[in-house]
Amino acid sequence: MHYGTVLSFVDQNVLFRLFAGFLALCIIDRFSDKPMIQGLLLIGILIAAYLLNMSYQVAMMLVFYFLSEKPIVRDFINILIIPGTFLYLHSFALIELYNGKRGFVGKGILKYSFYIIYPLHLFVLYLLRYIVFK
């Protein structure tokens, strides 16, 4: 990691990767009736992603999009491409079980507890790091 720089071309923030993937999906949607323009723009996005060291993530987003109707093929490709996939094979099963509907969130304290738990766990991790590396 290169800390203290505004923009590092070695390692990009995850939001840059998500934005590049989102931009690629918008291109697919917007230029679906013009395949030549669509292909050129997607190649441009992939080249830019490669130059910014984030081509792998953008390419995987496109694989997930194009193979969304073929989950077995998609999962097989992910197992072959992603290093260490065996460590999280269980996640593929959970993704396949998702039915597209929002799950139970509840009312009251359960609904808003996630807004407290996430920053609290980051603070606890910060304290642990501070104590260990003091």
What's the quick description here?
The chain is mainly alpha-helical. It has helices at residues 14-30, 35-51, 55-66, 71-81, 89-97, 109-132.
Overall spatial form: extended
Strand content: under 5%
Mean pLDDT: 80
Helix content: 55-70%
Report how far apart the termini are.
21 Å
Class by alpha and beta content: mainly alpha
In N-to-C order, the SSE pattern is HHHHHH
The number of E-state strands comes to 0
Please count the helical segments: 6
Compute the CA-based radius of gyration: 19 Å
Largest sheet: none
**Which regions are unreliable across 5 or more consecutive residues at pLDDT < 50?**
none
Describe the structure.
- Helix 1 (14-30) runs antiparallel to helix 2, helix 1 packs across helix 3 (55-66) and helix 2 runs antiparallel to helix 3.
- Helices cover 67% and strands 0% of the residues.
- The two termini are 21 Å apart.
- The longest helix has 24 residues, at 109-132.
- The chain has a domain at 1-66.
- By secondary structure, it is an all-alpha fold.
- It contains six helices and no strands.
